[in-house]
DNA sequence: CGTAACTGCAA
DNA sequence: TATTGCAGTTACG
C-alpha cells in the first residue's frame, strides 16, 4: 500500500503571499478578498496535485511565544499587517472550517513550531509530509520524507524542495539551514546573526566547519582575519540566533491524526461564503460536478530524479575535437541549441548541448568560446555530414538557429517532438520533461518552472549559466534516450511512412519558410494606420453622440448596457454573462437605430487596425524588413499547420476593405508571387474516401461542384440553378465536410431546422456513398477508438463513447471531419515537400514562403516564373494519386492582393 | 497576475 | 447545436 501523505500549510505565510501577489479585490460590501482567494486557489491546487489523505493549516496566534520572552526584540520592527489583509484572516478561517480542513493553533507557539512538531510526528508514523509555505525557514525541516513547497513569484507555481534540491540550491543540509540563518541573521524576524556575513560567507563557513557550534570552538581556524574578528565578536549573537531560528519539533501537545483526515467540505456553508466573497469562478467549480470525471492523481512515486548522468563541458577547440571524434564513432548525435533570439537572420548561438550516446552529454557555452568561427566550422563538418544522424526535440529550432551561420543540418533522422505528436496529436504540450517521465521514468528539471511565467518570464538565454547547462543537458540526454521508445511506438501504430516521408522532411521546409519570411511595405502599413486611426476616432465620436454617453465600445458588457438598457433596443440573444452584441445580432438591429451601423463599422475598422495593421507593424523584422511567422507542426488535431506571431493564415480576404491589406505583402525587387491553391481539395478527398460515383462524376466532368450539388438537391437541371440555390448548396457542402447537423445548417442558412434536414436528406439520397461513409466512419471510430487519414494519421475520439449527447455528437462530427480535413493536410504537406525539393534540385532561387491550408505562395524571380509555375502545379497535383484528379489553380502578382 | 469570455479573421 | 486555428480586448477573481 502506498504511503499516506499529509499536507501541512503555513496559513499566515501563505495568505501573506497571496495578498501581495494579487491586486486588491473588494466585494460590494467593501470586504477585501484577494488574500482569501489566492489562498484558496493555491490550497485547491495542492490538494488536486498531491491528493493527500491528511491536511491541516497552521496559524500563529497573537499570544507571545517563548522567543519573545527570551529575546525582547524578537520580530521587533516588523511592520504591522495592513488592515486590508488582517481583515481577511478571520473570513479565511471560516472558509477552512467550511472545507472541513483542520486548523492547527496553539497559544504560545508559532505556526512554524506546530508545523515542525506535526511534521516530525507524521514522519515517525511513516507518512510522506508536504509543507506548503512562503517562508524559507521551513527548509530546515526537509528530510527524505518531508518535502517543502515554497511559493514562487505569483501564486500559481511552487518550488518543491527535497534534500537533493536543497543541497543543489544552497549547498547545505536541512540542519545546516538553521546555522545558515544563525550566521546571516534575518531582518524580518529581527534575528541579529553576524553583521557583515551574508549568504555567500555563511555557506563558506558552514562548508568548512559544518555547524555553528564547531565554528565557535575553532574560530582560530578562520583564515580571513576580518571575518575571524567578526565571528569572535558575535558569539553570543550566534548562539541566540540559532536558538531563535530553530523550529521546535517536540512541542508537548497531543496530536490526533484523526482530526487531520481529509473530509468532504460542507458545501452549503462553503457556497454561502463564496457568494459573500463573490468568488463566482469557485462557485461554479464546486457546483457543476455532475458527470465530471474523478481524476485520481497517481503521484510521482518511483520516479527517478536525474542527477547522475555524466555531463561534460566543452571549453576549448581541442575538447570539441575530442567530442567530435566520439560523434564519428557513434551513429547518432542529439542536439539542442539556445540562441539570442534577437534576429532570425543574424542570430547568435548562446549554448549547445549534444549527446552521442545514452549516458553522456557535452555542453558548450558558446558565449565563452574564444574562436567562435572555428567552433562553427567544426560543427558544420559534423552537422552536414551524411554519416551522422541528427536527433532533436523540435529540431526546426536548430535548423533555424544554424541557418545564419551557413550550416544546414542535412541528415535529420529523428525528432521526438514530432514523433509524439503523431502518436497523439490531441495533446496540449509535448515537452521533453513529460516524455521523460512517461517513457523513461526519468524526472528532469522543469523548464517552465525555471523560466517562471507571466510578466517576469525569462527567456532561456537569461537563465543562470548553471541552470541553463543543467536544463539543456538533461533535455538532450532524455531526447537521446527517447528515440528508440518513440520509434517503437511509431512502428506499432504504423505511422512510420507518415513520419519519415512526410513530417520529418516537412520540418526542413517549414524552417526554410520561417527564415525566408515575407516582405511587407512598411510605408503602406503606416499610411493605413493613420487612415484607420482617423476613421476610428470619427466613428467613436459619432457613437458617443448617438448614445448620449461616453463608454468603452470595445466592451461587450458596456455596449450591451448602452444598446439594450439605455437605448432600449430589443436584445436578440444573450451570452452566459450578459447581452450578446456580436455582428449577427447587430445586423438584425441595423434599421432600428442610427448607432448600429456605426458600431458595426467601428468594429470592422478597429479589428483591422489592432489585429492586422498594428499587429503587423509591431512584428516587422528591422533587419530584413520582413515578417517571419512561425509555422507550427504539432498544434492541430487534424494534421494541419498553424501559424503564429503573426498568424498569416487569417489575413482578410472576404471583404474588399480588409482584402486591401493583402497589398502590403509584396514580392521583393525583381520577384513576383505565385499563388497556387487546390481546387475543392476537401470535397475531392471526400469523393475519394467515400468512392461516391456521383461526386466522382462531378469532378471528372469538371463541373462547378456547388452548382452540381444545387441541381441534385433542388432537382433542377444544372443550367437552371440560380445563384441563391448555388449558395445554399455551397453551405450544404461545407456542412458535409464539417460533419453535418440539421441544426448547424439551419443556423448557417437562416432556415428552419426542418428545411435544413430536407436539404441534407436530399443530399445524402443523391450521394448515397457519402452517406455510407459518414455512417461507417462513426462506427469505425467507436469500434477502434480513433479515426485515420489517408496517410494513417490518427486521432483518438473518446468523445464517441460519451453518454452526454452533446459530447457524443461532437465526437461524431470530428469522426466525419478529421479524415477529410486531415487527408487534405497530408496532401498539401507532400506538395510542399515536392515543391521545396524540386526548386532546390533545379537550383532555382524561388522560395516557398507561405502555406494557408490549401494554398501555397512562392516568391519567384521574374526569370524563373514559367519554370516555377510548372513545378508548383506538378508538385501539387501529383502529390497523391486519388480516384479523382487533384487540381491546383495558379495566379501571380507583385503582391498578395494581385496574386490571389 | 493569470485566465476566461467575447469577438472576429482565415481555410 | 458545423471543422480547424490565432489574437486583441475586456473582465473576473
TrEMBL record:
Sections of the chain in a coiled coil: none
Quote the catalytic activity from the record.
DNA(n) + a 2'-deoxyribonucleoside 5'-triphosphate = DNA(n+1) + diphosphate
**DNA-directed DNA polymerase family A palm domain mapped to chain residues:** 658-864
User: Is Zinc included in the keywords of this UniProt record?
Assistant: no
Reading the lineage from the top rank, the first entry is Bacteria
Keywords tagged on the record: DNA damage, DNA repair, DNA replication, DNA-binding, DNA-directed DNA polymerase, Exonuclease, Hydrolase, Nuclease, Nucleotidyltransferase, Transferase
3'-5' exonuclease domain mapped to chain residues:
311-491
Per the similarity annotation, which family is this? Belongs to the DNA polymerase type-A family.
Q: How does it assemble?
A: Single-chain monomer with multiple functions.
Q: Which SMART domains match?
A: 35EXOc, 53EXOc, HhH2, POLAc
What EC number is given for this enzyme?
2.7.7.7
Supply the name of the protein: DNA polymerase I
What is the scientific name of the source organism? Alkaliphilus hydrothermalis
Q: Which CDD domains match?
A: DNA_pol_A_pol_I_C, DNA_polA_I_Bacillus_like_exo, H3TH_53EXO, PIN_53EXO
Q: Where is the 5'-3' exonuclease domain?
A: 4-263
Q: Which GO terms describe its molecular function?
A: DNA-directed DNA polymerase activity
Amino acid at each position: 500500500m502506498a504511503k499516506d501523505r499529509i499536507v501541512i500549510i503555513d496559513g499566515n505565510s501563505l495568505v501573506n503571499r497571496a495578498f501581495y501577489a494579487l491586486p486588491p479585490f473588494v466585494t460590494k460590501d467593501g470586504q477585501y478578498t484577494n488574500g482569501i482567494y489566492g489562498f484558496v486557489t493555491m490550497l485547491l491546487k495542492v490538494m488536486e496535485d498531491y491528493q493527500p489523505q491528511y491536511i491541516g493549516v497552521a496559524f500563529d496566534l497573537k499570544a507571545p511565544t517563548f522567543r519573545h520572552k527570551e529575546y525582547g526584540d524578537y520580530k521587533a520592527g516588523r511592520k504591522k499587517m495592513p488592515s486590508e489583509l488582517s481583515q481577511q484572516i478571520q473570513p479565511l478561517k471560516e472558509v477552512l472550517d467550511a472545507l472541513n480542513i483542520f486548523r492547527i493553533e496553539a497559544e504560545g507557539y508559532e505556526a512554524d513550531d506546530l508545523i515542525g512538531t506535526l511534521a516530525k510526528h507524521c514522519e515517525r508514523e511513516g507518512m510522506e509530509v508536504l509543507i506548503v509555505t512562503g517562508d524559507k525557514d521551513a527548509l530546515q525541516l526537509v528530510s527524505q520524507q518531508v518535502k517543502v513547497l515554497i511559493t514562487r513569484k505569483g501564486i500559481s507555481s511552487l518550488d518543491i524542495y527535497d534534500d537533493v534540491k536543497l543541497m543543489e540550491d544552497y549547498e547545505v543540509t536541512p540542519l545546516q539551514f538553521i546555522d545558515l540563518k544563525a550566521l546571516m541573521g534575518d531582518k524580518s524576524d529581527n534575528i541579529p546573526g553576524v553583521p557583515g556575513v551574508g549568504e555567500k560567507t555563511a555557506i563558506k563557513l558552514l562548508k568548512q566547519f559544518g555547524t555553528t557550534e564547531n565554528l565557535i570552538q575553532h574560530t582560530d581556524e578562520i583564515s580571513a582575519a576580518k571575518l575571524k574578528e567578526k565571528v569572535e565578536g558575535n558569539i553570543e549573537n550566534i548562539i541566540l540566533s540559532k536558538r531563535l531560528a530553530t523550529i521546535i519539533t517536540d512541542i508537548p501537545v497531543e496530536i490526533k491524526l484523526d482530526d487531520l483526515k481529509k473530509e468532504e467540505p460542507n458545501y452549503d456553508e462553503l457556497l454561502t461564503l463564496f457568494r459573500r466573497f463573490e468568488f463566482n469562478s469557485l462557485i461554479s467549480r464546486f457546483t457543476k460536478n455532475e458527470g465530471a470525471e474523478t481524476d485520481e492523481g497517481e503521484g510521482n512515486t518511483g520516479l527517478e530524479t536525474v542527477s547522475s548522468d555524466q555531463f561534460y563541458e566543452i571549453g576549448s577547440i581541442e575538447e570539441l575535437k575530442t567530442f567530435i571524434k566520439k560523434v564519428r564513432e557513434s551513429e547518432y548525435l542529439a542536439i539542442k541549441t539556445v540562441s539570442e533570439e534577437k534576429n532570425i537572420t543574424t542570430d547568435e548561438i548562446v549554448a549547445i548541448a549534444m549527446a552521442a550516446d545514452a549516458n553522456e552529454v557535452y555542453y558548450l557555452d558558446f558565449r565563452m568560446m574564444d574562436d567562435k568561427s572555428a567552433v562553427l566550422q567544426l560543427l558544420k563538418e559534423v552537422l552536414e555530414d551524411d554519416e551522422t544522424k541528427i536527433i532533436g526535440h523540435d529540431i526546426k529550432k536548430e535548423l533555424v538557429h544554424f541557418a545564419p551561420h551557413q550550416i544546414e543540418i542535412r541528415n535529420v533522422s529523428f525528432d521526438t517532438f514530432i514523433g509524439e505528436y503523431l502518436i497523439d496529436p490531441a495533446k496540449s504540450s509535448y515537452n521533453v520533461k513529460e516524455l521523460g517521465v512517461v517513457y523513461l521514468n526519468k524526472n528532469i528539471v522543469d523548464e517552465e518552472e525555471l523560466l517562471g511565467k507571466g510578466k517576469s518570464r525569462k527567456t532561456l538565454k537569461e537563465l543562470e549559466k548553471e541552470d541553463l547547462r543543467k536544463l539543456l543537458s538533461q533535455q538532450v540526454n532524455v531526447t537521446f534516450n527517447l528515440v528508440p521508445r518513440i520509434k517503437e511506438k511509431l512502428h506499432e501504430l504504423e505511422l512510420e511512412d507518415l513520419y519519415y516521408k512526410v513530417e520529418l522532411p516537412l520540418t526542413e521546409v517549414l524552417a526554410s519558410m520561417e527564415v525566408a519570411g515575407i516582405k511587407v511595405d512598411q510605408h503602406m502599413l503606416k499610411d493605413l494606420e493613420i487612415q484607420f486611426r482617423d476613421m476610428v476616432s470619427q466613428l467613436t465620436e459619432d457613437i458617443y453622440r448617438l448614445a448620449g454617453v461616453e463608454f468603452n465600445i470595445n466592451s461587450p458588457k458596456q455596449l450591451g448596457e448602452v444598446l439594450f438598457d439605455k437605448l432600449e433596443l430589443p436584445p436578440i440573444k444573450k451570452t452566459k454573462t450578459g447581452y450578446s452584441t456580436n455582428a449577427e445580432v447587430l445586423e438584425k438591429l441595423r434599421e432600428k437605430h442610427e448607432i448600429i451601423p456605426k458600431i458595426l463599422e467601428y468594429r470592422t475598422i478597429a479589428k483591422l487596425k489592432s489585429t492586422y495593421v498594428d499587429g503587423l507593424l509591431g512584428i516587422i523584422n528591422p533587419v530584413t524588413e520582413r515578417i517571419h511567422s512561425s509555422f507550427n507542426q504539432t498544434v492541430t488535431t487534424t494534421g494541419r499547420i498553424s501559424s503564429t506571431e503573426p498568424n498569416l493564415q487569417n489575413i482578410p480576404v472576404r471583404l474588399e476593405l480588409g482584402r486591401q491589406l493583402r497589398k502590403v505583402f509584396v514580392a521583393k525587387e525583381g520577384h513576383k508571387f505565385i499563388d497556387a491553391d487546390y481546387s475543392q481539395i476537401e470535397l475531392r478527398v471526400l469523393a475519394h474516401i467515400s468512392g461516391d460515383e456521383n461526386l466522382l462524376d462531378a469532378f471528372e466532368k469538371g463541373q462547378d461542384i456547388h452548382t452540381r450539388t444545387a441541381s441534385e438537391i433542388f432537382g433542377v437541371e444544372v443550367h437552371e440553378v440560380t445563384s441563391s440555390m448555388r449558395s445554399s448548396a455551397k453551405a450544404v457542402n461545407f456542412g458535409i465536410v464539417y460533419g453535418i447537423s440539421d441544426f448547424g445548417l439551419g443556423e448557417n442558412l437562416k432556415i428552419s431546422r426542418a428545411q435544413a434536414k430536407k436539404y441534407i436528406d436530399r443530399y445524402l439520397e443523391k450521394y448515397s456513398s457519402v452517406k455510407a461513409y459518414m455512417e461507417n466512419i462513426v462506427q469505425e471510430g467507436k469500434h477502434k477508438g480513433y479515426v485515420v487519414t489517408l496517410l494513417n494519421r490518427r486521432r483518438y475520439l473518446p468523445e464517441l463513447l460519451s453518454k452526454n449527447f452533446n459530447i457524443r455528437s461532437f465526437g461524431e462530427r470530428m469522426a466525419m471531419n478529421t479524415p477529410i480535413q486531415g487527408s487534405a493536410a497530408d496532401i498539401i504537406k507532400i506538395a510542399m515537400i515536392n515543391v521545396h525539393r524540386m526548386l532546390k534540385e533545379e537550383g532555382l532561387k524561388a522560395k516557398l514562403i507561405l502555406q494557408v491550408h490549401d494554398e501555397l505562395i512562392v516568391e519567384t524571380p521574374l526569370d524563373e516564373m514559367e519554370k516555377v509555375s510548372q513545378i508548383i502545379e506538378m508538385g501539387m497535383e501529383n502529390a497523391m494519386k486519388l480516384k479523382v484528379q487533384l487540381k491546383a489553380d495558379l495566379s501571380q502578382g507583385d503582391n498578395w492582393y494581385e496574386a490571389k
